[in-house]
Every structure is written in C-alpha cells, then in structure tokens.
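ugh ok fine here u go
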Amino acid sequence: MASISRLPMPLQETYDWQYDGACRTVDPETFFSPDAERGPRRRNREAAAKALCAVCPVIAACRAHALQVREPYGVWGGLNINERDMILNHRKTA
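structure:
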C-alpha cells in the first residue's frame, strides 16, 4: 500500500482526473496482478493495461500521481512498478 503520508489531501478536485480515466470501466485485474502471477501471463496482462493507458486522456495525471505517492502495485500511467522504481531511482541520482 502507498504510504498515506504521500497521498494528496482528500479533496474532490485532487482526484477529478480519475473520472476521465480509460480504466474506469475496466476490470481492475487488468491493472493489478493476482498472487504469484509470473512470466508470459504477467507480461500479457501488463501489455493489455498499457494499451489502455496509451489511449487514456489522463495518462499524465495518473503517472504523476503514481510517482508522487509511490504506488507499490499495478500499472499506473502506463508504467508498472519496476518502471516507476527506475524513474524514481533516476530522479534520486540526477
């Protein structure tokens, strides 16, 4: 779970971007892996999630949110946890 200390204030305006997400009506399992999911199954699921993100009108806001709060699970803003970690680690060293 993301550390709640990094979450934005619980104001409606802070989360309004989520109403426009392409993922809003999609099964959450598309974006979050089941326990012990590995290999081709995981890659295929993540590819499907990223394909939805690629056409999403709020991809930038979603990605910014995930990086800001350090979302530890799922595909957010077209990035999986490993990709988000790489960005955050790069920011630390830059």
